[in-house]
Amino acid sequence: MSNPSLLILPGDGIGQEVMAEVRRVIDWFGAKRDMHFDVSEDLVGGAAYDKHGTPLHDDTMAKAQEVDAVLLGAVGGPAYDDLDFSVKPERGLLRLRKEMDLFANLRPAQCFDALADFSSLKKELVAGLDIMIVRELTSGVYFGEPRGIHMEDNMRVGINTQRYTEAEIERGARAAFDMAMKRSKKLCSMEKANVMESGILWRDVVTEVHADYPEVELSHMYADNGAMQLVRAPKQFDVIYTDNLFGDILSDCAAMLTGSLGMLPSASLGAPMANGRPKAMYEPVHGSAPDITGQGKANPIACILSFAMALRYSFDQGDEATRIETAIEKVLADGVRTGDLLGDEDTVAVSTSGMTDAILAALDASL
Ligand code: IPM
Ligand code: MG
Questions:
Q1: Residue nearest ligand 1's atom 2 by CA
Q2: Most exposed residue of 1, 163, 177, 303, measured as fewest CB within 10 angstroms of its CB?
Q3: pLDDT level of residue 70 (50, 70, 90 thresholds)
Q4: What are the backbone dihedrals phi and psi of residue 270, each rounded to the nearest 5 degrees, phi first?
Q5: How far apart are CA 55 and CA 9, in angstroms?
Q6: What mean pLDDT do residues 237-254 have?
Q7: Is 252 known to be catalytic?
Q8: Do the bridges between strand 130-136 and strand 104-110 make them parallel or antiparallel, or are there none, so unpaired?
Q9: Phi first, then psi: what are they for 67, rounded to 5°?
Q10: What is the spatial distance between Cα 238 and Cα 248, in angstroms, rounded to a whole number?
Q11: pLDDT band for position 344 (50/70/90)?
């Protein structure tokens, strides 16, 4: 049998640096766990635009459709801010999500004990925090038609459309209920049913799907209240299911509760392929961080944890994913810190590659 295939798309800014560290972790699994991947690498975002004049070349799109999993770093940067909307780096990422039909975006927000002091909230509110946001990723206002900017009565009008079919709401809801069944069987669905018809439909469909998951305790919340509750008492939540735009905002909010955006991975999953694995792309939640690019300051943990999610969700290697997560917990408990996490006493400042050195040493010690 051939090795599982991975397509690495480092993208822009710190995406390139953190992905170089992930490759070291992938190599570790080859050398020490006899787990081998066929790894290929390609361009996305500004890096692809510089070479091809498009943020995602058709050949790269085709490769992404063929591999077992895609690992993406980050896209965007000030050099590309003035590009036409249609070729902005973000369009490359959105095309991957849309054409691979990655409708279920899993965004865990987990607070590592060693970092509880780092949150902008009081330690007792976030210690032990472990939330999973399931964000619908291929529909809603990100993709709805009509869209655009046009003239009406000599005035420019900007239009985007929030549109959801019941099938789209339902398949995401099933992913969220399945996730709840594997965790504490609690699901909170968030929308704005008080002002949006798409929110009314959302609430109806989620309630209908609930009939197939009677063990799950389902609640509904308006998304604005959800934002407020996330910063008031985040531990009341376990799994949250919400739409593309609310999910974008609420997941940044949840992420920051944990202390650093540099810590959080994500998985975007679609329907099963012929080999039974889901279509999948894994990416850190942080962006390309142009302010620290090229200085060895980036935190590689989010990207390494994204590879751990790939092991769990694409390759059925949950124990090996846990091995990575435990190694990272240990390194943090030992006080090893990249620049984004400095500040408390008894910590050792390390560079991007220094953090990986520590993680690989902890992985060695786990054998
Ligand atoms: C995210 C990002 C993207 C989004 C951008 C880069 C297009 O913010 O993954 O959360 O808005 O979905
Ligand atoms: Mg976002």
A1: 248
A2: 1
A3: very high
A4: -120, -155
A5: 12
A6: 96
A7: yes
A8: antiparallel
A9: -75, 170
A10: 17
A11: low
Q: Which residue has the tokens 């927000």?
A: 109
Q: Burial, 268: exposed, middle or buried (Cβ in 10 Å; 0-12, 13-18, 19+)?
A: buried
Buried b / exposed e along 276-315 (16+ C-beta atoms within 10 A): ebbbbbbbbbbbbbbebbeeebbbbbbbbbbbbbbbbbbb
Model-level pTM greater than 0.70?
yes
With tokens 């985040």, the residue in question is 234
Catalytic residue among 49, 80, 142, 282: 142
> Which is the closest atom of ligand 1 to the Cα of 251?
10
Which of 339, 347, 231 has its CA nearest to residue 295? 339
Ligand 1 atom nearest residue 90's Cα: 7
> For this structure, is 117 an active site residue?
no
Check if the beta carbon of residue 199 is closer than 8 Å to that of residue 192.
yes
CA-CA-CA-CA torsion sign (88, 297, 352, 250): negative
Q: Which of 93, 136, 242, 281 to mutate to test the pocket of ligand 1 (most atoms within 8 A of CB)?
A: 93
Please tell me the number of the ligand nearest to residue 105's CA: 1
pLDDT digits (tens, 9 = 90+) for 28-49: 999 999 999 999 999 999 999 9
* 335: alpha, beta or left? (left if phi > 0; alpha if psi -120 to 50): left
Per-residue model confidence as pLDDT tens digits over 207-222: 999 999 999 999 999 9
- DSSP track, 12-55: STHHHHHHHHHHHHHHHHHHHH----EEEE---THHHHHHHSSS
Would you state the pLDDT for residue 346?
79
CB 355 within 8 A of CB 331: yes
Domains and CATH numbers, the chain: 1-108+263-367 (3.40.718.10), 130-256 (3.40.718.10)
